[in-house]
């Protein structure tokens, strides 16, 4: 464990030397990170496929290509982001310089999950580098091939004194959290998020917690059902449902439910044939613990299986499965599913659907499929969630001009695009006054002895 302490000490010494603060240094590190992804895409893709048979197309699109696009965008915008941000000047400061200076926090910890094991390490790292920090990155132990490749490549491409990968599981993360950091960026479950926040409180370290939860989908009869089904099932089947913003369950009327199921049968057959197990386009559950957890939710839920239901523990395969007429009290509705099972709960109206959403913890996202502006507006104003996406699933993730993050139980803080730069920067409000006699005339009323005339000035 001493290597963890050594890594943090080295990073702190490097940060204190000031090396990471210049534009040139940040730019070079980002260019090197881009080179890392460009030159090793195949190796990275192989490692992740080995970890849980994620289809190569999905790895390419959501891990390496997303990472490359993000780095290129930040390289393009970095200089502007580093400029002092001008603000409005209140009257008494009209003669002064007033601005916000973005300064790096220092040494940051980035602790990541297994479901997008490369991108969820790299994306926060891009923000940390852009903002001028040093970073210790802790990938998930559940995807060891990806963790290994990160620990080999990062020191080879980036300045090894500033950026270091720690591998391991709970004991290593616990040791890591005993160190003093200036910022902790954590992505993972809400349960572990609480452990992270508790550890951070020792040094009052600020945190971003990118957590999970049950993301609801509402579908009404104004929506084109075939399009809605394709977009919902795409979000549910991608990565075999193991995405933080995967649609967790559907709320709709009984009539919509029947149309939904009919359309879903066709869609799934077109995508995966008669047996999704034979399809190269469908990922596996990451390990046997998660397989058993999901399977137990399925077995304990006394609902009708409308589609799917087959599984194979040897292959960690769970078929895309749709459950109909599910009750809110069923086990599957008590926790984030994080697998390819989609329960449908019947509601009569959009108001009833918002009431269901509001009864649970605040979700990471809410998805609404409706062409009724009033319904869209109702979800916007009457529910609270990290993000809201109307008539699609997942796609808000790559819209980097809006913040991505949770609220309440689904997280604290947000990132992506400029929001990542801001997350990893302390925004130092700065006022520069002139030390001259003209300015001092404005100050004269604040000094003792206090008189009524002072107050009138
Ligand atoms: P996890 O919380 O089990 O693990 C995440 C990280 O925390 C890993 O690096 C792990 O080593 C570490 N960790 C685990 N237990 C720990 C403990 N007791 N003490 C200290 N560190 C510990 O999460 P996971 O299973 O890897 O990921 C799935 C969860 O992450 C889901 O809830 C999902 O919704 C969420 N998630 C959220 C986002 C987001 O952007 N909001 C993205 C991906 C996943």
From TrEMBL:
Keywords: Membrane, NAD, Oxidoreductase, Transmembrane, Transmembrane helix. The active site is at 210, 244. One of its GO terms (molecular function) is aldehyde dehydrogenase (NAD+) activity. GO terms for biological process: aldehyde metabolic process. Belongs to the aldehyde dehydrogenase family. It comes from Exocentrus adspersus. It comes from the Eukaryota. This is Aldehyde dehydrogenase. Residues 3-428 form the Aldehyde dehydrogenase domain. One of its GO terms (cellular component) is cytoplasm. SUPFAM superfamilies: ALDH-like. It holds the Pfam family Aldedh.
């Amino acid at each position: 464990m001493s290597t963890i302490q050594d890594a943090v000490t080295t990073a702190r010494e490097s940060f204190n030397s000031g090396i990471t603060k210049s534009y040139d240094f940040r730019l070079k590190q980002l260019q090197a990170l881009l080179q890392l992804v460009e030159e090793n895409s195949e190796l990275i893709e192989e490692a992740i496929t080995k970890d849980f048979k994620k289809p190569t197309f999905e790895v390419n699109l959501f891990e390496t290509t997303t990472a490359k696009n993000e780095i290129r965008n930040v390289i393009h915008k970095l200089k502007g982001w580093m400029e002092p941000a001008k603000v409005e000047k209140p009257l008494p400061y009209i003669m002064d310089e007033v601005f916000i200076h973005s300064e790096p926090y220092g040494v940051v910890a980035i602790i990541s999950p297994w479901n997008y094991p490369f991108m969820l390490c790299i994306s926060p790292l891009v923000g940390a580098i852009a903002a001028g920090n040093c970073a210790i990155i802790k990938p998930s132990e559940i995807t060891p091939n990806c963790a290994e490749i990160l620990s080999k490549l990062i020191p080879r491409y980036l300045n090894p004194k500033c950026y270091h990968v720690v591998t391991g599981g709970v004991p290593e993360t616990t040791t890591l959290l005993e160190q003093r950091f200036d910022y902790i960026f954590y992505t993972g479950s809400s349960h572990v998020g609480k452990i992270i926040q508790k550890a951070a409180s020792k040094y009052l370290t600020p945190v971003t917690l990118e957590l999970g939860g049950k993301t609801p989908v509402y579908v009404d009869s104004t929506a084109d059902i075939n399009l809605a089904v394709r977009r919902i099932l795409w979000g549910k089947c991608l990565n075999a449902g193991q995405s933080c913003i995967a649609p967790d369950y559907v709320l709709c009327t009984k009539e919509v439910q029947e149309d939904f199921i009919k359309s879903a049968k066709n869609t799934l057959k077109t995508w995966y044939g008669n047996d999704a197990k034979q399809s190269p386009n469908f990922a596996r559950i990451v390990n046997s613990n998660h397989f058993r957890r999901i399977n137990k939710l399925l077995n304990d839920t006394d609902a009708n299986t409308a589609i799917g239901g087959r599984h194979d523990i040897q292959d960690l395969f769970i078929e895309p499965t749709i459950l109909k007429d599910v009750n809110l009290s069923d086990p599957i509705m008590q926790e984030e599913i994080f697998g390819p099972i989609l329960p449908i709960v019947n509601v009569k109206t959009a108001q009833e659907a918002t009431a269901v959403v509001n009864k649970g913890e605040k979700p990471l996202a809410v998805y609404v499929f409706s062409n009724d502006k009033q319904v869209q507006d109702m979800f916007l104003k009457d529910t609270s969630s990290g993000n809201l996406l109307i008539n699609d699933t997942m796609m808000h993730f790559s819209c980097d001009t809006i913040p991505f993050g949770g609220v309440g139980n689904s997280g604290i803080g947000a990132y992506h695009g400029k929001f990542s730069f801001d997350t990893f920067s302390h925004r130092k409000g700065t006022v520069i006054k002139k030390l001259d006699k003209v300015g001092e005339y404005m100050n004269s009323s604040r000094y003792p002895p206090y008189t009524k005339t002072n107050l009138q000035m």
